[in-house]
Amino acid sequence: MEYKKVILKKGKEESLRRFHPWVFSGAISHIDDSIEEGDAVSVYSADGTLIGNGHFQVGSICVRMLTWGDTAVDEDFYRERLQAAADLRKHLRLLREDNNSFRLVHGEGDFLPGLVVDVYGTTAVLQAHSPGMHFDRMKVAEALTHLQGLEIKNVYYKSETTLPYKADLDAENGYIIGGYDTDIAMENGLRFHVDWLRGQKTGFFVDQRDNRSLLEHYSSGRRVLNMFCYTGGFSFYAMRGGAEAVHSVDSSAKAISLTNENVSLNFPGDERHKAFATDAFKYLADMQKGEYDLIILDPPAFAKHKSALKNALVGYRKLNGKAFEKIASGGILFTFSCSQAVSREQFRLAVFSAAAQSRRKVRILHQLSQPADHPINIYHPEGEYLKGLVLYVE
Fold this sequence. Notes:
- The chain is α/β, with parallel strands linked by helices.
- The chain folds into 3 domains: about 5-70, PUA domain (Archaeosine Trna-guanine Transglycosylase, Chain: A, domain 4, Roll); about 75-185, RNA methyltransferase domain (HRMD) like (Transcription Regulator spoIIAA), CATH 3.30.750; about 205-394, Rossmann fold.
- The protein has helices at about 15, 75-90, 130-135, 135-145, 210-220, 235-240, 255-265, 280-285, 310-325, 345-360; strands at about 5-10, 20-25, 30, 40-45, 50-55, 60-70, 100-105, 115-120, 125-130, 155, 175, 185, 190-195, 225, 245-250, 275, 295, 330-335, 360-370, 385-394.
- The protein has a 7-stranded mixed sheet, with helices on both faces. Strands 2-6-5-4-1-3 form a 6-stranded mixed sheet. It has a 5-stranded mixed sheet with strand order 7-8-9-10-11.
- Helix 2 packs across helix 4 (about 135-145), helix 5 runs parallel beside helix 6 (about 235-240) and helix 9 crosses helix 10.
- The longest helix is centred in the last third of the chain and has 18 residues, at about 310-325.
- The protein is globular, with a radius of gyration of 22 Å.
């Protein structure tokens, strides 16, 4: 299929030859005058060789590559790629009687840059992160409802906050196929409400599923503090794990309300759980030393861009430093960074610095990452964003 052309400078095709899916603005020699943001385009090397096709947008990343060679970006392409994504999730055994929530499409990790799809039962929540995916949203939605092995009946489009604001696409959140069915999904036998209408991301953080399961095994008899709890995922896993007490903290009163609803769904009337809508740093500063012997620190991204990296690392040091100061002897700390701009080494160094300043004996029990339904494209290492450590503190 003939698309408008993007021609690279000499030698700038090398990263694409290694299947990296981004074309940066500095690599481009010429762009057809009629190209508009979100168009499907063909990328050529300086000598005129077709490399592949992708979506064009204005910015540092000018093209997100979708196909290599002359494969068209059409309905057949989306059906094939989405079915491959679904087949992987079936191989991972994520669709079971006790589990119907998972990430179906993880952008570059599923060779669909600019697209995220999370599944909650019969509803798929679709997020476009590029204008091209915004324009192709109905092709994606139609393909989602025809996937073999999945029964997706409803597609909710949630891209108001994920698209480049300068593109002025006027995207509206809402159902583009089907409608409201239920907002209750299941993860490893635990039920939870998903607020895809007004909640963060797609409504729930499915990327912590495996780490929540690990926490469950450490929770028996412990006093648990779940900081930045959002809708309480770690909290109800800790309760099922036999925690003595579980306290959930978030600055958002709405998040605390959802946490209480989720705990009640699984443990109605259980007095082990209390929730507090307050600032995390204030709560940590005010609490008694030794009050908790299992603490979860899962803050929002401290650095969404490289420019915020220095301040982010200071934030991680302060946050973890306060946890090291207050956690009981023999306590376990689950600490995370979901900032893509922060490398695994930088996060670990920030936590190490906090531990050293506390002068406590600290051992690493586990080094954590994102789960298999958030795969990392081997040609796009930037896709690794979730870093975590489980630490034993004497």
